[in-house]
Amino acid sequence: MNPSKPFIIRPVATSLLMAGILLAGTAAYRQLPVSALPQVDYPTIQILTFYPGASPSVMASSVTTPLERQFGQIPGSIR
User: What kind and span of H or E run contains 3?
Assistant: First the structure.
């Protein structure tokens, strides 16, 4: 038996079935939760370093830059 034979024999039933599927799909699509700005928690690292008596340039060259290099090598990190 040809699988498309019942659909060819009964075109009205086929049209009603197609309309029902289309209506159900439209109703399901409208129920989908979609947000323009979804809530996303991005992973962050916060580090406090203390170097008493150091100037900002010393902190940048001897503390901050090496830390940034190390943390930049973590898989999945964004620079």
Answer: none
Q: What is the pLDDT of residues 1-59, one digit of tens each?
A: 789 999 999 999 999 999 999 999 999 999 998 878 878 887 777 888 888 888 889 88
Q: What is the pTM of this model?
A: 0.43
Query: What is d(CA 39, CA 53) in angstroms, rounded to the nearest whole number?
Result: 42
Question: What's the Cα-to-Cα distance from 24 to each of 10, 34, 59, rounded to whole Å?
Answer: 21, 18, 63
Half-sphere exposure of 67 (CA within 13 A, CB side): 11
Kindly report, residue by residue over 54-66, the tens digit of the pLDDT. 888 988 888 888 8
> What is the distance between the alpha carbons of residues 11 and 21, in angstroms, rounded to a whole number?
15
Distance of CA 29 to CAs 23, 32, 39, 64, Å? Answer: 10, 5, 21, 49
